[in-house]
Write a structure and sequence with these properties.
Helix content is 30%, strand content 34%. It contains 4 helices and 11 strands, in the order ααβββββαββαββββ. The protein has helices at residues 2-12, 15-25, 68-82, 119-130, and strands at residues 27-31, 35-41, 46-48, 59-60, 63-64, 92-100, 106-112, 136-137, 139-141, 144-146, 148-160. A hairpin with a 3-residue loop joins strand 1 and strand 2 (35-41). The longest helix is centred in the middle third of the chain and has 15 residues, at 68-82.
């Protein structure tokens, strides 16, 4: 009996490990009765270094509260909540271009590429990102907070199933 109990405990201790491994690689899954999508959030995030900060200056990019992994979890949570998987079947990369001011607030958000008939999807994706309430720490150039831009790559893979 002890052996069976030990085997069950051992077997079920590995179940959450797969979720943690997938999250570390940037893969997030959401599914419902008919549609399934995966969002790969590439890390590290791309950076547009401001022209006002020279190559000789000490520069650090804007950081999300909790780091890139926390932002990836937050963005997926809101994409799952606000992007309707029943309407959209999205495949391929999209880029979020986020402008962060010197106070750490998101000033401008742009989603690219613009593809035919994607206006409502891009609007919903943009809305999902704006719902994130945690703050960014601004980019710093020579110990002075400055405005900056970050590029985040989201790679969508969708599948639909007829029931």
């Amino acid at each position: 009996m002890k052996t069976v109990l030990f085997l069950l405990i051992f077997a079920f201790s590995w179940v959450p490990a797969q979720d943690v491994e997938d999250l570390q690689e940037g893969f997030f899954y959401a599914e419902n009765s008919r549609n399934f999508f995966r969002v790969e959030i590439a890390r590290p995030f791309g950076l547009y270094k401001p022209e006002s900060c020279s190559d000789l200056s000490k520069f650090s990019r804007a950081q999300f509260e909790g780091g890139d992994e926390a932002f990836s979890r937050e963005i997926f949570k809101y994409i799952s909540a606000y992007v309707d998987r029943e309407i959209y079947v999205v495949n391929g990369p999209f880029f979020l271009h986020v402008s962060i001011n010197s106070k750490g607030d998101v000033e401008n958000l742009e989603v690219t590429p613009k593809v035919p008939n994607s206006e409502s999807f891009l609007r919903d994706l943009k809305f999902a990102v704006t719902r994130i309430k945690k703050r960014w720490s601004p980019a710093v150039c020579d110990e002075m907070p400055i405005s900056s831009k970050i590029r985040i790559k989201l790679n969508f893979t969708s599948e639909s199933v007829d029931l």
